Amino acid sequence: MKVLIIANGEIKDIQKVKAMLPQVDYVICADGGVRHARELGVVPDLMVGDFDSLPDEVLQEYSMAGIPIKRYPMDKDKTDMQIAVDTAIEMGASQVFLVGTFGSRWDHSYANMLMLYRLARRGIKAQILDSHNVVMVSSGKVEIEGEIGQTLSLLPLGGDVRILRTDGLKYPIVDGILPLDFPYGVSNVLVKPRAEVHVGSGWVMVVIARD
User: Fold this and answer.
1) If you write DSSP's letter for every residue of 143-159 in order, what string do you get?
2) pLDDT band at 150; cut points 50, 70, 90
3) 74 — pLDDT class (breaks 50, 70, 90)
4) pTM score > 0.70 for this model?
5) CA 192/CA 104 separation, integer angstroms
6) What's the pLDDT tens digit per position in 1-35?
């Protein structure tokens, strides 16, 4: 099952993100993400969160339209995004796409990015789709599709990462370490429309630029 989660972060180019959206089986809106859903032309299958950033009349509108709404207290341990992600996990999602993930609050952006790790360590493929970037996290084989000349970065997540080999990149890595405090994996370049990164140990974050 493919699940799209729309959060309440910034989407600077709605049309660009709309063109990136894949076909999915289920859509979850986290809190005010429903406003982005409207602009994207997407109807949610479920709305979750404390809804502190959404007017009651909007909630009532969707409730009257028959959209299931799960409301949580504002004082809670999980963020609205994590509630949505955990819902997707419980549903048996095989792939999850996150939209509206980044914004002016860096702590929220980082917490949302960590949801990629939460999903990946459970064997669920996941991507953040942003106006300027596509972000993935993996501890195994990463397959990357893009255009020749497109920039991407390989960054360690949580500790040093051992890369067994890469294919299709201008600056190859063969049996190399990406240290947590030495991000030399920034700004590599695709030399093939399809590239691969094979991770031996640790978790790598792949950021594909779409500027």
Assistant:
1) EEE--TT-EEEEEESSS
2) very high
3) confident
4) yes
5) 34
6) 999 999 999 999 999 999 999 999 999 999 889 99
Across 58-74, b (16+ Cβ under 10 Å) vs e yields ebeebeeeebebeeeee
Lowest pLDDT segment from 43-57, 141-155, 178-192: 43-57
Taking residues 37-55, what's their average pLDDT? 90
Say how far apart CA 148 and CA 191 lie, in whole Å: 5
Between the alpha carbon of residue 2 and those of residues 21, 91, 124, 200, 201, the distances in Å are 11, 10, 10, 27, 27
Burial class, 149, CB count within 10 angstroms (exposed 0-12 / middle 13-18 / buried 19+): exposed
Cβ within 8 Å of residue 111, ≥6 positions away: 79, 81, 82
Looking at domain 138-209, what is its CATH homologous superfamily? Answer: Thiamin pyrophosphokinase, thiamin-binding domain (2.60.120.320)
Phi, psi angles (nearest 5°) of residue 210:
-125, 30
Count of helix runs (H) and strand runs (E) in the chain: 5, 14
Phi (first) and psi of residue 156, to 5 degrees? -70, 145
CATH entry, 2-131, from 3.40.50.10240, 2.40.30.130, 3.40.50.300, 3.40.50.2000: 3.40.50.10240
Supply the DSSP symbol for 171: S
